[in-house]
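Morning!

As promised:
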Amino acid sequence: MNMDFAGHSLDMTRCHVMGVLNVTPDSFSDGGHFSRLDSALAHAHRLVAEGAAIIDVGGESTRPGARPVSVQEELDRVCPVVEAIRAEINVVISVDTSTPEVMGESKRLGAGMINDVRALQREGALEAAVTSGLPVCLMHMQGKPDTMQSYPRYSSVVREVTGFLMERVRVVERAGIDATRLLLDPGFGFGKTLGHNLELLKALGQMRALGYPLLVGMSRKSMLGEITGREVSERLPASLAVATIAAIKGASIIRVHDVRETVDVIKVVSAMEESDV
Ligand code: YH5
């Protein structure tokens, strides 16, 4: 089951690593415009050298309390990085955006997929994604980034998340996005308690059975801090544990900060799965 990411084909029956590349002002030491682009590009080179099949470029912080970013600001952050990666590195470029203008411009500059934590619900996003012709990841979030962690509530988190994603699938397919270019993501940490996240992790195999490739992102997230008591910088072992679980349960793309270590995890899981065929 191959999916085409603007000229790069990836087998979705296998598991791939997506490396996180934040291009928000807090993410790279601020020595001005050029050094920001330089450090982002250097980081992208490193992620690919470590084995990332996809680089996820994001210019909007979804952290609670983060200032909303204007369209122009997001374009200014994301586009130069997409263009520079395209020019220098042979890798799939994903753009972590909900903004139609960023989707369109990134596609023009060579991006290979759209990763939207708002599942194309922002005004104009659905149309922009249709026009782009790119694969799209639809993610579930309860509430809005600012307030989503204040009181997450579900009668059944698995039913609600699955129901939401299948409803978005119905809408986007009707709008002209073929099923063969959709990925689904339960949205770990986006309006979920630790209990909700664990239920979703347990049910990942069930979600995979919906027939769409899954993308998951748990790397360094608070759920791992809650389980281990560790600060963000000390969450690698826990991140690898959940990456292992996701790979075993059939995730196609794992979105992480620590690419090198996660690639080894996937190699081990794949070796096990291929040993009996
Ligand atoms: C995701 O799950 N997540 S941005 C809080 C943290 C650490 C990391 C320290 N974009 C996802 O990575 N896109 C983000 O606590 C995403 N799935 C998809 N598809 C949040 C993030 C993070 C947040």
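The longest strand covers residues 16-22.

Hope this helps with the figure draft.
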